[in-house]
Design goal:
Elements lengths: L16 H53 L3 E2 L6 E2 L2 H8 L1
Antiparallel strand pairs: 1-2
């Protein structure tokens, strides 16, 4: 009987150090950019909540002004009130 010859697997078990470094140098900035996008998304979410709260506060202020002055237009630069055409006619009577 003949002895069985042992087959040696000659497939590489890892890539070269240079190849590994090249891949790591590409993957690392991609990961950093994705993390930065995540931080930005979180900031955007927080800012959107702030805007919503500010809009709610503005709506409350508009309701209070409407109770005091009626339906008017207010110049937010000067505070000047302008009355709609119907209102001005009623005021003159």
């Amino acid at each position: 009987m003949s002895k069985k010859e042992e087959v040696v697997d000659l497939k590489p078990t890892s890539i070269t150090e240079e190849q590994l470094k090249a891949i790591q140098d590409l993957v690392s900035p991609i990961n950093q950019a994705q993390m930065e996008l995540g931080r930005m998304a979180t900031q955007k979410h927080a800012i959107l909540h702030q805007i919503t709260k500010l809009q709610e506060s503005l709506q409350e202020e508009q309701v209070a002004l409407e109770k005091q002055y009626g339906k008017v237009n207010i110049n937010i630069q000067t505070g000047e009130i302008s009355y709609p055409e119907d209102e001005q006619a009623n005021k003159e009577d």
